[in-house]
Structure formats: structure tokens, C-alpha cells
Specification:
- The protein has 140 residues and is mainly α.
- The protein has one domain.
- It is 36% helix and 0% strand.
- Helix 1 crosses helix 3.
- The longest helix is centred in the last third of the chain and has 19 residues.
Amino acid sequence: MRHFRNLIEFLGKPRNKLRPDDLSIYRPEDWKGPRSVNQGEVKKLVAEEVWERYEGRDASGNRRKDTISRYLQHCTKQRTESKDWPVRQMCDEISPSIERFRRILGYWNHVAVDDGEFVVGEAGASTATVRTFGRTGESK
């Protein structure tokens, strides 16, 4: 969930809610590196409706009580309440923006753990961290 929250913050947090040090799809100069990025393509990535659904306000304009950040970021009583997140739906909602983002960037030097395994979908929603330690490429 924490990763999903980070994705919707980056791809969907409204421009008027950004702090000066937030990385955002609205500020490509902070993340595009030396490559040029088509501003029209960047605008297609914006997923404000997804951010609003999981971090925004209710119909009355009040901050919703079931936001991801209330479960993960803040130490609240709400964390003791069970919550069934619709993980498959959440992945389906954000996937189009992620895929467009990947196409815009093209080749990118990804940072990954040696022999790392990336899990996408419901299996990757766990907050457990599993890591296998082994020799790095230098010591093989």
C-alpha cells in the first residue's frame, strides 16, 4: 500500500496541494534527467481522479477517514481497524498511467537489488519484506 500511495502522490496529487520538495508528474524537470519529455504526453499521465479516490475528500469536502495515509503514514487508532483494500482494482486504476510513464521515459537505468524479484499485483501488496542475502557480482 505504501508504494501505491507513493505512485498516486507522484502521478495524481493535485498541483495546488504539492509541497515545494514533492516529486510530481507536474514537475518533469525534477525527474526527467537529460532527456527531453513531451509536455502533452506528460499531461496524459496525470491520475488526479485516482489520488482523489484514495487520498482526497468526501462529497462534503471533509478529509475522508479511510485514506491510505491514515493507515500507513500516521500513527492513529484507525491502524488497528481491519481494512480490505481492493488491490486488484487499485492496480487496474493506476496501471495505464504507469505504462504511459514507462513509454515516455523509454530506456532507463533501473536501480535494482542484485537478482532482485519484483512482485506486481495482489501478491505485492503485502507490507512484509522478504530479502535473500547472497554474494554480489563483485564477490562471485
